[in-house]
Amino acid sequence: MSLLINDECIACDACREDCPNEAIEEGDPFYVIDPDRCTECVGYDDEPSCVAVCPVDAIIPDPDNVESVEELKYKYEQLQEGE
Question: Which whole number is the average pLDDT over 18-44?
């Protein structure tokens, strides 16, 4: 499942800097996560790095983008091949 930044976001930039997939972009009024690039850090870490650094707990699972661990691993592999 991709992650989602909700309206609790304070646009502190911590999550964007920590995202290994560059899936987080500055939006208006808060940041947004590209579900095509978000792997919940599968392939990089045991937990999503953006969730760990968010000071206001504004990053939650995106109910519109449910994916299994296998799908997230596949997406990670595809992103690595594209670099």
Answer: 95
